[in-house]
């Protein structure tokens, strides 16, 4: 059964960071997260090399990198499994409703079908947990509505354009609007319609921000609900520009601040205009103040647990994104390799200059060329929940076997939501001698790493690129005659 995903009208487009400062922040964040990946495609709970990958954390990192323009199917270490593949391999281990929802957000970003993800129908797994009033419960067999699970059901299901799914989203939105407290907030765990929770349970910054995101993701622009929610969030902001988990807490934290920034982006507002009274500091500046040289994000000024988790939360804030992440075009990368000195030699991908730093719009296997690996930070356990155009030149196509692993058509079909797959991916890109004004924005396929940058350059560097490109083509043609084991070049 086919699944229709919403286009850009129903979700925010991949946005470039709003200024050079944010580009640098995001570059560092992406680099840190990519370096934290294990060879099995997952990410460990504490980020230490050799530690087992964590099924709860990995979706958050995949979502974070997708917000920076990296399809989860492309995110892998050289010779290793992708983040998408890791999650598909472990889909049978999902249990709680929000676990299915987090993985569905990854599938949304990958642009693949959620009907058979690692043998699991993610839509069915989520939809059958909706209660008659529209809310979703947390664990199988429960009948208690949960704020967190309902918010993330809306976020994850909104891009799926099936009538039954959209009807379920509509009912969830109506329930969520009813659950807003009089001060504009939403509570973290205890809805007011549940006996014993009270008529106005205390609100939480994280959950309130996520609820605003959910309403906007469902294209339900409830101006009054958003106005009240933003009033609550403004009042909770601390002088350092950040936000605490609960209003009145003196110390801000990066998780609550990142979720608030995502809510601001979802409303089409600029977080840099959210300045704290008296100090003039704003939330993106606070997040930067918590960023280490290696790109990781500290939870609080006084505490540094959950480093990979906090960094994953911050990436969408730096990239100008809210949830759900928009679907990222799939890129078939060139071969990559890892040297003994710990350098990743990756392709620049679409939008990335040759041998550049990681680029937020890159869809390459490892965006941005060579990067040095960094060390990890430790992790403790607090935030182990979410709040809760046209081509004018010829195209070079290179058929090459997947690096490091034999073909596995049935496995690839299962992960990508397709009925069949070629064992030889195709890399396409603009020829190096393309004219300067060639437009690529609407090209149906991503450019091969590095080629687009060379084709768009001018001056001496352009002619050097042309010479190099001509030499490469000659060598490829000669090599195809000398050794049939090498990839076939198709013009």
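-> sequence recovered:
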């Amino acid at each position: 059964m086919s699944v229709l995903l919403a286009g850009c009208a129903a979700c925010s487009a991949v946005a470039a960071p709003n200024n050079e400062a944010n580009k640098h922040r995001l570059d560092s964040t992406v680099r840190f997260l990519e370096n934290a990946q294990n060879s099995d495609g997952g990410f460990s709970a504490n980020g230490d090399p050799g530690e087992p990958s964590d099924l709860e954390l990995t979706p958050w990192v995949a979502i974070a990198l997708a917000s920076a323009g990296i399809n989860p199917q492309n995110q892998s270490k050289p010779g290793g499994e992708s983040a998408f593949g890791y999650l598909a391999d472990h889909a049978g281990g999902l249990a709680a409703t929000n676990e299915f929802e987090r993985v569905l957000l990854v599938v949304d970003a990958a642009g693949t079908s959620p009907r058979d993800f690692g043998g699991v129908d993610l839509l069915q797994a989520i939809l059958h947990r909706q209660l008659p009033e529209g809310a979703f419960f947390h664990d199988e067999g429960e009948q208690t509505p949960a704020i967190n699970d309902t918010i993330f059901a809306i976020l994850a299901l909104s891009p799926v354009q099936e009538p039954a799914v959209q009807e379920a989203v509509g009912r969830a939105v109506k329930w969520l609007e009813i659950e807003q407290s009089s001060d504009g907030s939403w509570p973290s765990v205890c809805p007011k319609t549940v006996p014993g929770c009270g008529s106005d349970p205390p609100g939480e910054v994280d959950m309130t921000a996520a609820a605003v995101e959910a309403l906007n993701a469902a294209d339900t622009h409830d101006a009054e609900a958003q106005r009240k929610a933003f009033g609550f969030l403004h009042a909770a902001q601390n002088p350092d520009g950040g936000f605490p988990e609960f209003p009145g807490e003196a110390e801000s934290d990066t998780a609550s601040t990142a979720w608030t920034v995502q809510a601001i982006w979802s409303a089409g507002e600029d977080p840099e205009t959210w300045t704290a009274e008296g100090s003039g500091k704003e939330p993106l500046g606070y997040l930067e103040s918590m960023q280490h040289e290696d790109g990781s994000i500290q939870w609080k000024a006084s505490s540094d647990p959950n480093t990979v988790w906090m960094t994953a939360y911050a990436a969408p804030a730096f990239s100008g994104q809210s949830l759900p992440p928009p679907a990222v075009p799939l890129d078939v990368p060139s071969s990559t390799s890892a040297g003994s000195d710990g350098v990743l030699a990756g392709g620049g991908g679409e939008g990335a200059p040759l041998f550049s730093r990681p680029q937020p719009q890159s869809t390459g296997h490892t965006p941005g060329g060579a990067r040095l690996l960094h060390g990890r930070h430790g992790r403790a356990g607090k935030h182990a929940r979410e709040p809760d155009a046209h081509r004018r030149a010829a195209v070079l196509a290179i058929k090459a076997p997947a690096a490091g692993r034999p073909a596995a058509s049935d496995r690839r079909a299962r992960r990508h939501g397709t009925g069949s797959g070629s064992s030889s991916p195709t890399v396409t890109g603009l020829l190096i001698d393309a004219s300067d004004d060639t437009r690529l924005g609407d090209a149906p396929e991503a450019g091969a790493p590095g080629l687009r940058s060379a084709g768009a350059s001018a001056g001496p560097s352009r002619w050097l690129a042309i010479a190099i490109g001509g030499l490469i083509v000659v060598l490829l043609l000669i090599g195809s005659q000398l050794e049939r084991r090498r990839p076939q070049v198709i013009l």
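The first strand starts at residue 136 and ends at 137.
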